[in-house]
Design goal:
The structure holds two protein chains of two kinds. By secondary structure, chain A is of the alpha/beta class. Chain A has two domains: 5-262, Aconitase, domain 3 (2-Layer Sandwich); 269-407, Aconitase, domain 3 (2-Layer Sandwich). In chain A, 32% of the residues lie in helices and 19% in strands. Chain A has a five-stranded parallel beta sheet, with helices on both faces. A five-stranded parallel beta sheet of chain A has the order 16-15-14-17-18. Chain A has a four-stranded parallel beta sheet with strand order 10-9-8-11. The longest helix of chain A is centred in the N-terminal third of the chain and has 15 residues, at 74-88. The radius of gyration of chain B is 15 Å and the shape is globular. In chain B, helix 6 packs across helix 7 (152-159). By secondary structure, chain B is α/β, with parallel strands linked by helices. Chain B has one domain (3-137): Aconitase, domain 4 (Alpha-Beta Barrel). Helix content of chain B is 28%, strand content 20%. Chain B has a seven-stranded mixed beta sheet, covered by helices on one side. The longest helix of chain B is centred in the middle third of the chain and has 9 residues, at 90-98. Chain B has helices at 17-20, 31-34, 46-49, 70-77, 90-98, 141-149, 152-159, and strands spanning 3-10, 55-58, 82-85, 102-105, 118-122, 126-129, 132-135. The chains are: A alpha/beta, B alpha/beta.
């Protein structure tokens, strides 16, 4: 019997021919810790009695949720993080370079076939380059820092096959929202997703990243794309035979296979206040809004900002709408300045903020209040996520978000 | 704690970690500081009413959302003895085991109870409510080992010879 991508990664990592449901101990290739959890990781690590990190170069610490600090107490996280890095000889620290998931791939910390864990649920993102990556809590992170290993249950795999050409006003975000709507918020719990088909093969790594990022919203443990030439270029590597072989075999066992025709996709939004409450934008059109947010680890990349700029060029946001744009990293910010995207967005009336998690986690940069409605490109619309519990959050693609910013109403994007 | 009885609080499907503890309180110093805000977006009064030994009974996908480990820690700090749900999200499940918060999966109980009812749980056997028994599954051995050690921190202390 053939193997799924996740089975192949686990076999390469452990030497074990594991099947779904088996419990195995994996050797961790990289870990990511972010600012919110570093105080807890540090105290648990020492409470466990560890005196050194198993391999300090494999650990990455990123400040993003609290950057720049919006409350005085936030600075405590930076102080503890800086002390931890110093004490245990870590070199990989980013204090204001952007959002953790963007940096992990952008700065080359993750390669195809790697096994990576992070203290953030959206760690599933690195499946965009064919890595097995998943979110864990701070206690498990502390134990990995000490041992370099973690137990996992080998997941079953749902294969998602997409073929054909997407309509111009549809983005990868619309695909993943539709899939979450079809699967339900727990439809992939404990499972791996595997994306295949020519639509996926033609996608940029940035678009694949939007999809692997949100897989956790269907409960998935990881979301995998086979490494290809685009992956090699993005990671600045030459693919090895082992990496090229990270393809699901035709006789592998899948617990579910879902087929989509790309031409059938339409712009969609996840409506308040569950990510699987997905409706077409045309069905929602006309709903008045107060704010638009374009950013986050889901949709704060250069192609996202450029897609929004294409719609906003020469136009202006509605007078009562605040459009907040947050690039996912410092590199993306610079690229968007250099290619003129930022100028278009600024002229259209956007409020451009520093690269960080920002409004997505409801801590800074545009908190909303009772009765307000926001169209946002991030990944969660839970109650109270971006302000009070009576804020309505609609999750959308950058194109749908830009279209809404101009009219002040939910609007079907026309490009 | 092989067998215990407690009063139940009943919640719905998809109780996410932003409901269990909103991000704005995550930078407070201790889980005790955060505990009064537990479940506040959904039921602001709930945290103050929960008493030591109470049990939460919920629908499917309990604990979905972020990896914040404060979620199970806060539920434990409120005195909740265990959470019984139709299903749990995976990160929340791991975090709970690692912190010694007992989770029980049962698909039938939620739709047959009312808030304030009493139930009796016998570990690895059954839940009893008004004379009806709901069977429950045993946990895999590696998880039992972590729980028996008193959580992952204690298991690691043992590994490091600090028993």
């Amino acid at each position: 019997m053939g193997a799924t991508i996740i089975q192949k990664i686990i076999k390469n990592n452990t030497g074990v021919d594991a099947k779904a449901g088996d419990i195995v101990t994996v050797n961790v290739d990289r870990v990511m810790i972010h600012d919110i959890f570093i105080p807890f990781v540090a105290s648990k690590f020492e409470e466990m009695g560890f005196t050194k990190i198993w391999d300090p170069d494999k650990a990455v610490l990123i400040y993003d949720h609290l950057v720049p600090a919006s409350q005085v107490d936030d600075t405590r996280h930076f102080r503890i993080g800086n002390e931890f890095v110093e004490k245990y000889g870590m070199k990989n620290i980013h204090r204001a370079d952007g959002i953790c998931h963007q940096l992990m791939t952008e700065a080359g910390y993750v390669k195809p076939g790697d096994v990576v864990f992070g203290t953030d649920s959206h760690t599933t993102t690195y499946g965009c380059v064919g890595a097995f990556s998943s979110g864990i809590g701070y206690t498990e992170m502390a134990s990995i820092l000490g041992t370099g290993t973690l137990w996992i249950k080998v997941p079953e795999t749902i294969k998602v096959n997409i073929t054909g050409r997407l309509p111009n006003n549809v983005m990868a975000k619309d695909i993943i929202l539709r899939l979450i709507g079809d699967l339900g918020a727990d439809g992939a719990t404990y499972k791996a997703l595997e994306f295949t088909g020519d639509t996926v093969a033609n996608m940029t790594v940035a678009s694949r990243m939007s999809m692997s990022n949100m897989a956790v919203e269907a409960g998935a443990k990881c979301a995998l794309f086979s490494p290809d030439e685009k992956t090699a270029e993005y990671c600045n590597i030459k693919l090895t035979d082992k990496e090229r072989a990270l393809v699901g075999d035709s006789d592998a066992q899948y617990c579910q296979v879902i087929n989509y025709r790309a031409e059938d996709f339409v712009p969609v939004m996840a409506c308040p206040s569950n990510v699987d409450n997905v409706k077409s934008v045309s069905e929602l059109a006309g709903k008045e809004i107060d704010q638009v947010f374009i950013g986050s680890c889901t949709n704060g990349r250069l192609e996202d900002l450029m897609a929004a700029a294409e719609i906003l060029k020469g136009k202006h946001v509605a007078s009562f709408v605040k459009l907040i744009v947050t690039p996912a990293s410092r590199t993306i910010y610079r690229q968007a300045v250099e290619n003129g995207t930022m100028a278009i967005l600024a002229e259209a009336g956007a409020i451009i903020t520093h690269p960080s998690c920002g409004l997505c986690c409801g801590r800074t940069g545009g908190i909303l209040t009772d009765g307000e409605t926001v169209v946002a490109t991030n990944n969660r619309n839970f109650l109270g996520r971006m302000g009070t519990a009576k804020v309505q959050i609609y999750l959308a693609s950058p194109k749908s978000a830009a279209a809404a910013a101009i009219t002040g109403k939910i609007t079907v994007p026309s490009v | 704690m092989d067998k215990f009885t407690g009063k139940i609080w009943v919640l719905g499907d998809d109780i996410d970690t932003d409901i269990i503890i909103p991000t704005e309180y995550l930078a407070l110093k201790t889980v005790q500081d955060m505990a009064p805000y537990a479940f506040s977006p959904l039921r602001p009064e709930l945290a103050a009413k929960i008493k030591e030994g109470d049990i939460i009974v919920a629908g499917k996908n309990f604990g979905c959302g972020s990896s914040r480990e404060q979620a199970p820690e806060i539920i434990k700090a409120l005195g909740i003895k265990c959470v019984i749900a139709k299903s749990f999200a995976r990160i929340f499940f791991r975090n709970s085991i690692n912190n010694g918060l007992l989770l029980i999966e049962n698909s039938d109980l939620r739709d047959n109870v009312s808030e304030g009812d009493e139930i009796t749980v016998t570990i690895n056997e059954a839940i009893e409510h008004k004379g009806r028994k709901y069977p429950i599954a045993s946990l895999p051995q590696n998880l039992v080992d972590i729980i028996n050690a008193g959580g992952l921190v204690k298991a690691m202390r043992k590994l490091n010879g600090l028993g």
